[in-house]
Amino acid sequence: MDTQKITMGGNPVTIIGTQLKIGDKAPDFTVTDNNLNPVSLNQYKGKVIIISTFPSVDTPVCALQNIRFNKEAANLGDDVIILSISEDLPFAQKRFCAVEGINNAHVFSDYKDLDFGMKYGFVIKELRLLARGVIIIDKNGIIRYIEKVSEITHEPDYEKALKVVKELL
Length: 169
Prior knowledge:
Structural class: alpha+beta
Number of helices: 4
Number of strands: 11
Largest sheet: 5 strands, mixed
Oligomer: single chain
Distance between the termini: 34 Å
């Protein structure tokens, strides 16, 4: 198992799981939707996939990240899908999506097995939460962009990620 250090509020935390690279084949994973149903990455084959990861819907920066990607999803067309993933329970995610009007991005939970988090190297060991980041997968299932935000309290680089997405369309 690989490890990496980032910070949260200036304090170091350890990120565990497989550290993937641009050009790697995106591993399939299973997460849980807001109705407690399993969802796998393979269900979105043939699409450009933006995976937005965050620690919790109940923090201001995570809320901003989800609201921003939900807004962007409305403008990206049918060839792009946004999967927002955290360790929040599906019930909390469902509440958050209803309150914030999140209906373009798909919000999923990795709470059961950390399947996504471990396969993509986004698990914060000390907290059992996901680090903040963005992964972009092309229509052929190849990873084209990875950002693991080095300070969890900061937002990801939306413009850089969206530029990659637009180049893939």
